[in-house]
Amino acid sequence: MATSVALLTTLNLDQRKAFLDYAKSFAASCTELGTFRALLEYRDRAYQLQMDQTAERIQEIQRAMRSPSSARRSLANLEVPVVMPQIESAVAYQTGVYLTSYPIFGVVASPQNQDAALQFETVIGNHSIRYGWAQELIKAFRNGFKYNFAPVACLWRRQNAATITTSTAAGTAGLGQLQQVMQEGNVLRTLDPYNCFMDMGVLPSRHHEDGTAFGWNELHNRMQFKRFVGTLDPTKTTSLREAYESGFEAQIGDAGSATNYFSPTINRAFNVSSLVTGTNWLNYVGLTQAAAGQNRINYRDRYLVTHFICRALPSDFGRQGNTPAIFYGIIVNWKHVIYVEQLVSPNDHLPVFIMQPNDDGLGYQTQSMLDTALPFQDMSSALWNITLESQRRAVFDRLIFNERYINKADIDPASSVARIPLRNASQFKGDDIGKAVYQIPYRNDGANLNLQLSEMVSQMADVASGQNRVDRGQFQKGNKTKTEFETTMANSNGRQQLASMSIEGQFMTPLKETIKNNLLLNQAAGTFMNRDTQAEVQVDPVKMRSSILEFKITDGVLPADKLLNMELMSVFLQTAQAMPTVMTEYDIMGMFIYWAKLKGAYWLKDFKRNPEQQQQFLQTFQQTSMAQNATPPEQQIPAV
After folding, report:
1. In whole angstroms, what is the distance from residue 109 CA to residue 111 CA?
2. pLDDT > 70? residue 634
């Protein structure tokens, strides 16, 4: 028996206190965050070519920033870019697979439900453009290949917005005006891995199914937080004044706390710690005191906003019921719960999905693509730096000098145009300068070998990742025929297709189901523009829900061609032309129209004839056929 779902379930103030205690207890249990964040930071430094964190390197960068010309004259240590090109090639491949079509997720349905499928697809396309799904998923792909950990949240958002209409008032008729409307839709957000805390005892790829809770911290300024609060449902929002007046105190040096905002230090030449703690400019200019005196809200300059999603029993928060449910709450500065909603999930999934391209069952210990390529980057960089050090010695090698004739301070600067004064020059006879200085000979026999080894190591990195130079848009030497090249590229793409299939099963499939469920539960009726058909589509949620079991959502790995064998249908249509009995038994025209719509021919309605045009066409066709089949009259042969 079908049961209705209460969509406005929330918690009262006392229950929200219990929710806050529950969240704090879970955050305190995340004891491995310090090590996890350090590992993320290490990977980002490798990706950004910032592995050299020594004080000498930082001073060298700062000198180069002050005087760019000095950087061109020095032979600084080099980090060979092996990790970043491989990751970007993998991101580009997955982007081409999943994100180049419109909409990102297509919809296939039975012929009788094609109109509902068009409505469904139109809404999905509208949401994907409005909320920037492609940009968020590209960031998720990059995080997945860098960290093997890419969390993405999928939540339904309602917010007030404005649209431009034409005024009909007497004084402003014909002018533009703003009209308040309600905007809603599926929002995808790639979460900052540094500021997530989760149940690390569960496999990342199965966290949406088996995880207890997932949370993430965001740092908002005053205006950002004020606008964010405006997007929340006011019927589920409380304690706003207390939240506005509460302060965020950054815990400096506590890198393992889930209740703190963590900002990684990737480039030590640029200090970002002040961006976290910040300066209370409102207090600096004296606005907070004035506002307090006028009984206004005493805003702060920084707010730590924590999103917390958990599976819990309603009785855990003081409500009745022991059936597990999913709750989504927003906590400000870990002091006030301003928003709580009981989420409805037909599949019982947490609305946070973790992409793990390399899923071998070892959970958070599994190596990412970056981890696989990093040893080769380190080795190649070391070989290059050995060669550079050799060149430095060739130019600035060891010297023996006599302090009676040469001042040490005069020969230390490494300059190609140095002027070195000679002291006590009267003691020299002729050109015998060897008494003053002598350069110890230096042999550099293995420099070329080091560079060859570095190139070989970089090629080994390609073998480890399953890529080649052509994958990155570079020329590949070799005299190959077209067939041989296509075979090579097909085999090269095998590893990347394997990652695509893994992403499809663990990430895209549950994400698509959540998008579909959110849309069917929350979408209101309205009119939307379909970018493919260039026409307005009337969306009827009741009609979409009535055909819910018929929908299949496609993507780059699971296109419409696989859900419906287009090649087989083409053969069937060709066969029907040669077999009249097939045309008698089956609606060939209906099949063809269905096939055309699946291939994107939604413009068919623009060329459909009305009944009068159809009758006129039939008459013309019959007349033409009769004229072609008529027997020509006999011609008389003229007498000679």
Report:
1. 7
2. no
